[in-house]
Design a protein that fits this description.
single chain, alpha/beta
Length: 102
Protein backbone atom coordinates (compact mmCIF):
# COMPACT_ATOMS: atom_id res chain seq x y z
CA UNK A 1 0.00 0.00 0.00
CA UNK A 2 1.46 3.33 -1.06
CA UNK A 3 0.20 6.81 -0.53
CA UNK A 4 3.14 8.68 -2.02
CA UNK A 5 3.02 12.12 -3.52
CA UNK A 6 4.59 12.39 -6.96
CA UNK A 7 6.54 15.53 -7.81
CA UNK A 8 4.10 16.43 -10.58
CA UNK A 9 0.78 15.23 -11.87
CA UNK A 10 -2.02 13.59 -9.98
CA UNK A 11 -1.73 12.36 -6.43
CA UNK A 12 -2.07 8.61 -6.71
CA UNK A 13 -3.81 6.84 -3.85
CA UNK A 14 -3.71 3.08 -3.61
CA UNK A 15 -4.81 0.40 -1.23
CA UNK A 16 -7.07 1.32 1.65
CA UNK A 17 -8.42 4.82 2.19
CA UNK A 18 -10.14 4.35 5.51
CA UNK A 19 -10.15 5.29 9.17
CA UNK A 20 -6.81 3.54 9.66
CA UNK A 21 -5.00 5.39 6.85
CA UNK A 22 -6.87 8.72 6.82
CA UNK A 23 -4.47 10.60 9.12
CA UNK A 24 -1.43 9.75 7.01
CA UNK A 25 -3.22 10.57 3.76
CA UNK A 26 -4.51 13.83 5.27
CA UNK A 27 -0.94 14.95 6.01
CA UNK A 28 0.06 14.19 2.43
CA UNK A 29 -2.93 16.10 1.06
CA UNK A 30 -2.15 19.12 3.24
CA UNK A 31 1.48 19.06 2.11
CA UNK A 32 0.40 18.99 -1.53
CA UNK A 33 -2.12 21.79 -0.96
CA UNK A 34 0.62 24.04 0.42
CA UNK A 35 2.08 24.26 -3.09
CA UNK A 36 -1.16 24.60 -5.07
CA UNK A 37 -4.91 24.95 -4.45
CA UNK A 38 -5.56 22.69 -7.43
CA UNK A 39 -5.34 18.98 -6.82
CA UNK A 40 -6.05 15.93 -8.94
CA UNK A 41 -6.35 12.58 -7.17
CA UNK A 42 -6.13 9.30 -9.07
CA UNK A 43 -8.29 6.67 -7.36
CA UNK A 44 -7.71 3.78 -9.77
CA UNK A 45 -5.75 1.69 -7.26
CA UNK A 46 -7.99 2.27 -4.21
CA UNK A 47 -9.10 -1.17 -3.02
CA UNK A 48 -11.23 0.03 -0.10
CA UNK A 49 -12.75 3.30 1.04
CA UNK A 50 -14.99 4.02 4.01
CA UNK A 51 -16.78 7.09 5.32
CA UNK A 52 -13.56 8.40 6.87
CA UNK A 53 -12.00 8.25 3.41
CA UNK A 54 -14.99 10.05 1.90
CA UNK A 55 -14.80 12.72 4.61
CA UNK A 56 -11.13 13.18 3.77
CA UNK A 57 -11.92 13.70 0.08
CA UNK A 58 -14.76 16.10 0.90
CA UNK A 59 -12.52 18.11 3.24
CA UNK A 60 -9.83 18.27 0.55
CA UNK A 61 -12.38 19.55 -1.97
CA UNK A 62 -13.59 22.25 0.43
CA UNK A 63 -10.00 23.24 1.25
CA UNK A 64 -9.12 23.55 -2.43
CA UNK A 65 -12.21 25.64 -3.12
CA UNK A 66 -11.53 27.91 -0.12
CA UNK A 67 -8.10 28.66 -1.61
CA UNK A 68 -9.55 29.46 -5.03
CA UNK A 69 -8.70 26.08 -6.54
CA UNK A 70 -10.49 22.80 -7.02
CA UNK A 71 -10.17 19.09 -6.43
CA UNK A 72 -10.60 16.66 -9.31
CA UNK A 73 -10.98 12.93 -8.79
CA UNK A 74 -10.02 10.67 -11.70
CA UNK A 75 -10.03 6.97 -12.51
CA UNK A 76 -12.47 6.02 -9.77
CA UNK A 77 -12.04 2.37 -8.76
CA UNK A 78 -15.10 0.13 -8.33
CA UNK A 79 -14.95 0.35 -4.50
CA UNK A 80 -14.85 4.16 -4.70
CA UNK A 81 -17.81 4.25 -7.08
CA UNK A 82 -19.76 1.83 -4.88
CA UNK A 83 -19.31 3.91 -1.73
CA UNK A 84 -19.98 7.21 -3.50
CA UNK A 85 -23.15 5.76 -4.99
CA UNK A 86 -24.24 4.28 -1.65
CA UNK A 87 -23.76 7.66 0.06
CA UNK A 88 -25.24 9.56 -2.92
CA UNK A 89 -22.09 11.70 -3.23
CA UNK A 90 -21.06 11.25 -6.86
CA UNK A 91 -22.72 14.55 -7.84
CA UNK A 92 -21.06 16.44 -4.95
CA UNK A 93 -17.60 15.94 -6.41
CA UNK A 94 -18.79 16.79 -9.91
CA UNK A 95 -16.22 14.55 -11.57
CA UNK A 96 -16.97 12.50 -14.66
CA UNK A 97 -17.32 8.85 -13.73
CA UNK A 98 -17.84 5.79 -15.84
CA UNK A 99 -20.60 3.65 -14.44
CA UNK A 100 -20.33 -0.02 -15.33
CA UNK A 101 -23.37 -1.68 -16.84
CA UNK A 102 -22.87 -4.85 -14.76
Amino acid sequence: MTHGIPEAGPLQLSGEVNIFTAAAIREQLLARLETSPRLEIDLAEVSEIDTAGLQLLLAAKLTCQSKGGDLTLVHHSAPVLDVMDLCNLTHVFGDPVVISSN
